[in-house]
Write a structure and sequence with these properties.
The protein has 9 helices and 12 strands. By secondary structure, the chain is of the alpha/beta class. The protein has one domain (4-266): Rossmann fold. The strands form 3 sheets. Strands 5-4-3-9-10-12-11 form a 7-stranded mixed sheet, sandwiched between helices. The longest helix is centred in the last third of the chain and has 21 residues, at 207-227. It is globular.
């Protein structure tokens, strides 16, 4: 028998199917509901509601953002590369009758083909990533470029609203992101950056390794900022304006310590 709980996100009532992991899933849904996490994301989705718009949820996991977006936008595409998370996502779409959500069970990157994808456990958690090469579970998943996908599904002329939270793999889709912003009408973006996961790609504790880590974090952060430079307003997860210089220094600091991502909002 399915284990269904009632939740409210941004004043909208939903149902969440927590059957696959009742304790862990319920804990996350209650945190989202209470505003402990993702509050600004949900406000962002509601604030930019567009009944003619297309919402792209890159890194959908259990689908809380996609479900809320399904009430605010004409069409939602939920990208999720973890095969076990796709099952939970399907459950939640079904119990909410969210027929305007299409799941895209692929890794979003800069090339088409396949990509190794990892979970620190057995999947179906928030940390699954292409960056966790030491994870217990590994899959080979199909990849897709965001710019090509938008054209292929016939959304080239639609206003696009974009959320990206893929546990470090955002640095692996920068060329596709650049072309997406050049080709299409992307009205606003919620982008989660994970400099700590990026820095972990350089091993060792020598001075040379530490300098390489800092150089990698700075160069990728600057590249992100160059790609999104057309957006005039940049805010942090609390809605406060953030300068590009401050964002670089924040990335350097977070690249040295194991902390959560930096969420930025671009309009």
């Amino acid at each position: 028998m399915a284990d269904i709980i009632d939740v409210t996100l941004a004043d909208e009532p939903f149902k969440a199917d927590v059957t696959r992991d009742p304790s862990y899933f319920t804990e996350n849904w209650r945190a989202w509901e209470s505003g402990d996490t993702e509050q600004e994301l949900y406000s962002f989705i509601a604030r930019h509601a567009d009944p003619k718009g297309v919402f792209l949820d890159v890194g959908s996991w259990q689908g809380s953002a996609a479900l809320l977006a399904s009430r605010k936008y004409r069409k939602v595409f939920a990208f999720e590369a973890d095969p076990t998370s796709v099952e939970a996502l399907q459950d939640n779409i079904r119990v909410n009758n969210a027929d305007n959500i299409t799941i895209v069970p692929k890794f979003v990157g800069d090339r088409k083909g396949t990509q190794s994808f990892y979970s620190m456990d057995h999947g179906n958690n928030a940390g699954s990533s292409a960056f966790h090469t030491e994870g217990k579970t590994r899959w080979e998943v199909e990849t897709v470029r965001l710019d090509e996908f938008i054209a292929d599904v016939g959304c080239s002329g639609d206003p696009i609203y974009l959320k990206i939270d893929i546990e470090g793999a955002e640095y692996m889709m920068l060329d596709a992101l650049r072309k997406t912003l050049q080709k299409f009408d992307v009205r606003c973006i919620c982008l989660s950056l994970h400099p700590f996961l990026l820095a972990k790609q350089v091993k060792g504790q020598s001075l040379y390794s530490k300098l390489r880590r800092r150089a990698l974090v700075v160069s990728r952060t600057l590249r992100v900022l160059s790609i999104v430079r057309s957006y005039r307003n940049v805010a942090d997860a609390d809605g406060h304006p953030i300068t590009r210089r401050r964002l670089v220094w924040s990335a350097i600091r977070k690249g040295r310590h194991e902390v959560r991502e930096s969420e930025i909002y671009l309009t």
